[in-house]
Amino acid sequence: MLWKTVPRVLVVLLTATLAAAGANPVTSQAATAVRPPDPIAHDPTMAKEGDYYYTIITGDSGRPNTYLPIKRSKDLVHWDEVGSVFAQLPSWVTQELGTTPADAWAPDLARVGGKWALYYAASQFGTQNSVIGLATSPTLDPTSPDYHWTDEGEVIRSTAGVEDYNAIDPEFVADADGSAWLAFGSFWGGIKLRRLDPATGKLSTSDTAVRSLASRVAPDAEEGASIVRHGGYYYLFLSFDFCCRGVESDYRMVVGRATSVTGPYVDRGGVPLTGGGGTEVLRGYNEFIGTGGGDVVSTGRSTYLVNHYYDATGGGAPRLNVRPVSWRDGWPSVGDPLNPSRSVGHGDAYVRLIERTSGRPVVDVGCGYEGADLALGADDAADPCQQWQYGYRGNGTSSLLNRFSNKVGEVAACDNRDGGRVAQWGWIGFLPNNDCQRWQAQPTGGGWTRIQSVLTGSRVLDVAHCAGGSTDAIVVNTRGDASCQEFRLQPVGPVLLVDPGATQPDCRAWRFTPAGGAEYTITDAASGRPYGGTPAHWTLVPRTDGTWTLARVGTSTVKTVNVLIP
User: Fold this and answer.
1) For the chain, how are helix, strand and coil distributed in percent, rounded to 5?
2) What pLDDT digit, counting tens, does each position of 24-60 carry?
3) What is the set of active-site residues?
4) d(CA 486, CA 126)
5) Which residue segments constitute the domains of the chain, with CATH numbers given?
């Protein structure tokens, strides 16, 4: 991928510039809270010592040559800068890599043998030319006379053509027997695990096995392992998809669990993480774009996820979230950040695209990822492979993002012709002259909508068998009168219906129930009372500015709303 060859700082700055220029406006809702700004952060790790929580991050893109900056806080909301681990990278890093990276990456902090051990990575971006190093300090308190960081040297290295892994994103974990392990990895083989020598913190010389914990089929990405032990299980948290694109990032976090630190890890559905599995626990919403790079930390009674996001209200700058983690039925749930969102809800609601003539939904065929086709499928409202976010992408256009795959529907390979395939790929619609993933809604009346490509010819979603084909595949065809080109968009589960201009938004959750044709009844998800106070039928169609038109059938009542996840 292009993004594996561009320095991450340049990518963030480029994307922030595009956002500031209005290349990708983000739907905004009425602010619901006054909040202090989150500090700059990327790939944070966190630990508590004394009265303070400390976080150490990948170098600050706004302050070059800050190798592993440190911040601290008493309340996990207000943070102070307290220097950095290194003023310059240890000389052995440059000697090993043959270059001096602008930053050290993705640190992991752990208390080991009476001192703090900090594992970190340095790499030539977009390559396997990477190392993981170790630094130690007796204390994290910069005011202590004992405070100092000692370079302990290299832990592990990777080289293209030699290893099948990338030595980045380290994670220290101690198992129930007290044995020490290091998880690491990203592209080129996924997440690996090596045993450590507890005396040195370096790789064990007696157990040299490289164990695989998680992997996905290229170009699908996974990285940023964090392992925590809870209630008899080890939980492996990962970041899926792509960071480092500012507001265009689609990072999200997933989890699997195992009874042994070495695996096998499986998700909630029993799918092995080595087979692409992972139960989603967090994805971007509101100003929190590309949530990932997380570290799960237990501090006595509480468990937190500390992660970065790209600020949609601040030019895509990477910033810090701290979120509580709770446990239910043996699985974690990630809550809202302690410094809450400025906006109501949790992003655009998911919808199902129901084709008019058959009443069948548009699905991600085979629950696939890159390259998977779209087609009509069996009706299963609970299936995430047939749930989509019709999300605003600027300039009057939107994307269709699948809930399961986190990929968007596109005119496949930009093959813009009648009968052209519609398939999925990671979001790259922000690149110049790449409109194959951008769509516009064209209401046709009665609550029905055509989904039209913005490519030349203005072709629309259609069903192959309605246009001379023999399958249920979704294709693009020239717009005509065929009803197979019309869809109703049905919100999934309870949703918020928010007036975009409201200063005190209505936060009640509403449920849509089909009522014939493209009409719905809408009821309060808690009380069952009808929307608007009296029973009625409604239609819902997307607009070209990220909002929706909600109309009461048979009346002149028309509302503009944002349709959001509660």
Assistant:
1) 10, 45, 50
2) 333 334 344 478 999 999 999 999 999 999 999 998 7
3) 43, 223
4) 43
5) 2-334 (2.115.10.20), 350-490 (2.80.10.50), 491-564 (no CATH)
